[in-house]
Amino acid sequence: MQPTSVERKQRDERNSVLIYKIIFYICAAIMIIVTGYAMAESLREYIATGKVVIGEVLVDTEFPMQGFAKLVSYLMVASVVGWFCVMKLGGSKTENISLTAKALLRMIALIFAVITSYELLYNFFVWNALMTADALSGIFRIDILNIPYPNPKTPWSLVFATKMFLAAAIISWHAFYMLSKPQKNNTI
Hints:
By secondary structure, the protein is mainly α.
């Protein structure tokens, strides 16, 4: 006997949920491993030299071998894809929260989206300006550029800052969008 269209749809929904869960757990594992490695290496560097550049170890480390993607790229992609999976698995739960809570969460998401977008553009423009200045001097050091801001004692790698603020901006804008979607019985 052939499965009915309802049974096929239910099986398809179960399969899609399983796929989103598997991908989420893979992304979570990548984020935990990469972050743990970065923290351990940064601590080791700080103990050895007394200074650390935020994100530098993730920019300097390519995996699985030299010439492949940098760990910061894996972290960025895993963050965005993991967020998407979480929203596909649990995004419908936002329909059950009160309009007041939803409005508050929407404003928080908008604030984060604006801040992360600003930081993304700021870091990208600073990185571009430093690369251009170096190129005019005949120097090409794209991946080692950093900015001693906000604390001069702990500069940030511009590659790391740009990629992670890109991920944060995408996640924040997506959260704002998901919280702003009109509900069937909602006029706000």
